Amino acid sequence: MKKVLSLLVIISCLTATKLLSQRANLDREYFQVSYVDLPTIPILDDSKRTFTSSSRNIFLEGFSRVAQNGTLDFRFTFHGTEIGDVDIKKRTHEEKDKEGNVIKTTYTYDVLCSYSSSATVSISNADSGENSSLTFSEDDSYSSKGFKTYSKASSYYNNNRYSIRDKYRTKHRNSMISQTNSKINYKYGYVPVTTSQSQHFWIIATKKHPEFANHQEASEALKAIFSKMQHDQPVDDLLIEAQPWIDYFNDVVTRYNEDDKQHKKVRYASYYNIAKIYLNLDLPEKVKEYADLLTANEYDKKDGKRLNRSAEDLINDFTINEISTRHFEVITEDLSNEPDVAIVYAEDPAEESEKAVAFLITAANDTLQTTVAIDELTKASAAIQVLDENNKAKEVAAIDSKQIVLTTGDIYEVATFTSSVASDKSNGPKFAKAIYQGNKISLYEHMGKEYVLKYTNTEDGISTMSKDFVFGFNKKLAALSTECEAVKGKIMANEYKNTKEGLLAYSQAYDACATE
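Above: the chain sequence. Below: its structure as tokens.
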């Protein structure tokens, strides 16, 4: 009886050892590939692969930028950044003792606001005669927390709302340009791609498995072969180098031909690896052959179906592009300033001016909705150009107006002063962008380069580019600040400069002092 039991134990151990040796854990081994991502709407004649655009930041892989008459034309229009409702939230903070009783209550105030931007890209395709467009929108929520009083929270936002808005406007515009490039290159571009993390083989990781050493060798050899792949070089030689390992995986299939899970798993790795070799060497029909074997093997039918779809997608790309490989030379160049072009633009084509909806408050206190070009508004002085409800240009004089409020958050006031930069040097009403508006003083920006101080106890503003300011800034500013000795002392200590930042700091300090 003891001999029979001993024999059974030995047989059981041998069986367990055999099963263990056949267990095949698989690891992903990633390899590098390089190819040209083919477009979904190709320009088949490479001599017609030219484009023009309204923005130098728009680019198209595999195309030449030209000054005019490009086969593709992209017009990017940024519609501006709108500021949502500003909300100041009160937060309660309670300090408790060990028994949980509230012994102290404090409050802080948070500034909350939303920003939204939109843009449109108009696309003209002279090759197909089709026109299309892309629309973009971006939204962000802004918060600034921890102000001790409501007034401090409100004052902080009011004094910084333009710089905050400008930050989101830049962020949104850059994002939309990036999205534009991504979408147009997907549709029309020939994009060189090199990646080492998108493709992998399944390699046996169980050291006791009989195929472990061969799998490891195959992995290293194939990774070395694919590392030589370049998007602009043919892959015929790489297929020749990979063929011995294709033969090896095919041989493994014949040796692991049983219907148990572990044999199926080894066959799965072989079929999968061969399919991946063929897929990345531009042989989709061979991929389908091994994808079908993967599905029939029944270890992982999903991978078989996925590889079949990849093969069909590649066949479709080849058909649309009338090509049989993703490996060829891609030429991307800028010919827009070449001297042999019939019409040469010495500078980058100007981008279309950003437009914004605005509300004009007239001298008679009527409110009119209109549209303005922000670039033109920035340069305006005694009059501005607006677009009426029929999108026709109309001139509005400052003398007939009080204020123009943009949905972007900018406010242009009508202030009376003598400009040092406008063509009209007379003292009169002019449009100027509000930088700071306090109880005792306001700071305006005129024509994008002149700063104007307007004290509430005077009728006219004062240009800081006037001769008195330029040649005696501290003396002139101190003379205007006699009721605030602390501020006057800082002026004479050269703490303020005749710059936007310096004048803003002065205005805030003067307003705080004079309001006390």
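Residues 131 and 192 are 27 Å apart (CA to CA).
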